[in-house]
């Protein structure tokens, strides 16, 4: 827990979601980044805002399709598996810190901001890459599936969320992926940068 707490504190202090993981889109897609920033601020201030944001997105059929074909969608809160959390906030230890600790509420708000900022960036960018006009031009279901898979992989990599399972040999074994999470600061971000 001390390792994951250190990650959470660093992720909070260095504004890593915007300046590190989303560095490419912050420069290349400033308006999308700004929109996602606003959505994330609401999430940071209120857990109810997280639910409202997710309910709104789930109404969009492209959201469900993109997630189905691999777009990373991290979660916050208690009882969420570690591999479904943002790398900087992988342990639910911060969810158990009491309000009186002061740092607990700050880290939880930071986790919500970090996680839902990157979630929204991924979806907002991906949606522009699969416009209805392009979907209508696809000639087969297989071609459409390939399109969604490629777009999902693209936004994952450019927001520092490459799939560790794609690492040759080592990525295939869960025990080795767990070791990466325990010993490396941000293995998914590291693998994303190698992909680039």
What does this structure look like?
It is globular, with a radius of gyration of 17 Å. 68% of the residues lie in helices and 0% in strands. The chain is built from twelve helices and no strands. With 196 residues, it is mainly α. The mean pLDDT is 88.
| Quantity of strands, as a count | 0
Portion of residues within helices: 55-70%
Fraction in beta strands: under 5%
N/C terminus separation: 31 Å
Low-confidence stretches: none
Shape designation: globular
Q: How does the helix and strand content classify structurally?
A: mainly alpha
- The helix tally amounts to 12
Q: Give the C-alpha Rg.
A: 17 Å
Question: On the 0-100 scale, what is the average pLDDT?
Answer: 88
Please summarize the sheet with the most strands. none
The helix/strand series, from N terminus to C terminus, equals HHHHHHHHHHHH
């Amino acid at each position: 827990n001390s390792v994951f707490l250190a990650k959470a504190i660093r992720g909070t202090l260095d504004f890593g979601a915007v300046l590190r993981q989303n560095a490419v889109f912050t420069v290349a897609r400033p308006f999308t980044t700004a929109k996602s920033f606003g959505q994330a601020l609401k999430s940071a201030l209120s857990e109810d805002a997280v639910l409202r944001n997710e309910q709104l997105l789930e109404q969009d059929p492209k959201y469900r399709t993109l997630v189905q074909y691999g777009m990373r969608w991290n979660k916050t809160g208690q009882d969420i598996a570690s591999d479904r959390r943002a790398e900087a906030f992988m342990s639910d230890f911060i969810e158990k810190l009491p309000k009186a600790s002061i740092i607990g509420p700050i880290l939880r708000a930071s986790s919500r901001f970090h996680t839902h900022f990157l979630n929204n960036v991924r979806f907002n960018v991906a949606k522009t890459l699969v416009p209805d006009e392009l979907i209508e031009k696809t000639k087969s279901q297989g071609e459409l599936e390939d399109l969604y898979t490629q777009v999902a992989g693209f936004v994952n990599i450019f927001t520092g969320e490459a799939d560790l399972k794609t690492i040759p040999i080592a990525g295939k074994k869960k025990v080795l992926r767990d070791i990466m999470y325990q010993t490396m600061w941000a293995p998914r971000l590291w693998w994303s940068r190698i992909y680039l």
